[in-house]
Amino acid sequence: MSLPGLLDGLELIRADFPILTRELADGFPLVYLDSANTSQKPQVVIDTMVDHLERHNANVARAVHQLGQESTEAFEAGRDKVAAFLKAPSRDEVIFTKNASEALNLVANTLAWATGDLQIGPGDEVVITEMEHHSNIVPWQLLTERKGATLRWFGITDDGRLDLSNIDELINERTKVVSLTWVSNMLGTINPVAEIAAKAHAVGALVVVDASQSAPQMPVDVVASGADFLAFTGHKVCGPTGIGVLWGKAELLGQLPPFLGGGEMIETVTMERSTYAGIPHKFEAGTPPIIEAVGLGAAVEYLSHVGLDNIRAHEEAITAYLLDGLASVSGVTVLGPLAAQARGGAVSFELDGVHPHDVSQVLDSRGVAVRAGHHCAKPAHQRFGVQASVRASSYLYTTPTEIDALVDALHYTKKYFRVD
Amino acid sequence: MDLDTLYQEIILDHYKNPHHAGLREPYEAEVHHVNPTCGDEVTLRVHLTGEGDDAVITDVSYDAEGCSISQASASVLTDLVIGKTVAEALGVHADFQALMQGRGTVVPDEEVLEDGIAFAGVAKFPARVKCALLSWMAWKDATSQIVAAPPANEEAQA
Fold first, then answer.
1. What global pTM score does this model have?
2. Is residue A2 part of a domain?
3. ipTM of the assembly?
4. Which residues of A fall within a CB distance of 8 Å from B68?
């Protein structure tokens, strides 16, 4: 089947991902609809990492020998590729972390320790949203609790968009930080990040953007986004686990104190005190995720070759098809915007009379992999009065046939639980 | 993958028509347990008559939100422990826990576990074992709180 917007040569793209040929129990082919949780990896990422391990493995930055030099070059090339992927003004603004959570915690923690202009204290406010992943809620709760500041948040409208009706009251002269997700991992909503960033900058607040769900599926231009800091994770953009990225404006990163202390983040150390390396190394204590950075570089290069605009068009086409398919199953309620152009490729829903865990268990018995639970977004679920949901999420390798398999399996689930 | 091993008819029956559901008075302890990975929740109350291990479990009432496995297991729990002494019920609890954590190798004793034997198949689905144990852990927690607490009238007598 062909839909307008689908990637040209979708079968060739699929052939890049070896896992997609897997057969599951009882001979069912894998229908992987859990890419918002983690993406699958193309052969080029796997091969690049294996090649590095087989031929170039050495620690970075400190070895003078040839392997050390090769490893350092490959690691730093990963940084260049990520900088290009984000259209970052400078490669030094790209900091490798362990994941997106660590990137967000890095910002929240160093802000807690900051003095001078960036200092946060009693009376100051940090603004987040009700649709954040827990990793963009908890670090700000910790920061505001520690500093006696106040945490505030944007609510969600009934149709799953950010409620911006009180934006002028929420973002005010007391606001120090506005931290929000670009694309919701639960509702799929694409938020007007640049518009909110402009409001925040008008009152002198910093803008932190969680791009974990946007970086995989739409073009990201960090400058155009309006962000001061932007975080995403490697494993959702076809890269490996164990690596995340924090991008920050050079000037701000320079003002923030170090995060973790250790090797490579210093300029010089005496027993009394230390001085610190410049960015990005100031924030990369210890041996970094070397192989992971090499793999991440290959991953973002792969995505750029396919084209992020093309991937976005594909996601929109598949998501529209998925929303239509779900609408054809009676008893299914979708949480979040119902228009594909207003959302990303993660669609959460409920099936009347069957708990999400039971839905996902039955789907799994048909080879269909989805996520069930609160998706680390408990407040967003609470907002809609639900405890858990089923989430189907597509990516550049998802086909309409796979959506058909999901819809068939949902009918089977209803029959199994006798809820027709 | 045999779904029917997981979703035994008995489990689905308890899920659709849970026994002893709802929160009731009187009770000596109320606990709230959550499965943080999936968000399943149970609020559970225990009412004992008598004291110590010989105390009889007069009522177990609960309000549970969760999947069929966690709901059905709360229902089976109440059937099994209400009317037993604390010592007897703890024995049943130990047997049920051993069954759940046995990865499918434990053969359940129907004399002891009654409808609980339907959960034998759950043990083969490691991701679902916590669902089956949620209310059982909540019951044990609530019961031990009552048994460990000094009798309510002790303070007045002192």
1. 0.93
2. no
3. 0.85
4. 354-355, 358, 417
